Amino acid sequence: MAYTKPIPDPEQYINKPFWDGCKDGKLMLPRCLTCNRVHFYPRVICPHCHSDQLEWVECSGEGYLHTFAVQHRAFGGWAEEVPFVTAFIDLKEGDRMLTVLRGVDATKPETIKIGAKVKIEFEAASDEVSIPFWRVV
Ligand SMILES: [Zn+2]
Asked: Is the pLDDT of residue 1 over 80?
């Protein structure tokens, strides 16, 4: 089935290592060599201490559900998926990631538990790009 949602062009962004990692099934994030914290989304300076001394590290792909919202309206390819759940994930390594949450019933939000353990997964959007999602485990 064709992927009908927007697809980023990793060649246009400073976060190419993030997208290369997604293609390889890995969560790659920048870690600050000054304060040792990781951050999402990738930036050229650390949002915690403003250092530009960063390295790319492979993260565990594990985290916890911080909060979520059920989306009932969407455009383009996302309209085919409503209702679906968007969420903030507290990464095991620190910082927080906005995502689409899978493995939950968007029609029964009372069954979705804040703090639930989640794991990252990747969906091939094209031959060059895979998109990260998170799933309750
Ligand atoms: Zn820092």
From this structure: no
How far, in Å, CA of 102 to CA of 85, rounded?
A: 7
DSSP string, 28-50: EEEEETTT--B-SS--SS-TTT-
Condensed to tens digits (0 to 9), the pLDDT of residues 2-43 reads 889 999 888 777 889 999 999 999 999 999 999 999 999 999
Q: Count the alpha carbons within 13 Å of 63 in the hemisphere toward its beta carbon.
A: 24
What pLDDT, on the 0 to 100 scale, is given for residue 28? 97
Q: How far is CA 108 from the centre of its chain?
A: 23
How far does the centroid of ligand 1 lie from the alpha carbon of residue 17, in Å? 19
Query: Ligand 1: distance of its center to the CA of 6 in Å?
Result: 31
Write the pLDDT tens digit of every residue in 102-128: 999 999 999 999 999 999 999 999 999
**C-alpha 55 – ligand 1 centre gap (Å):** 11
Gap from CA of 97 to ligand 1 centroid (Å): 17
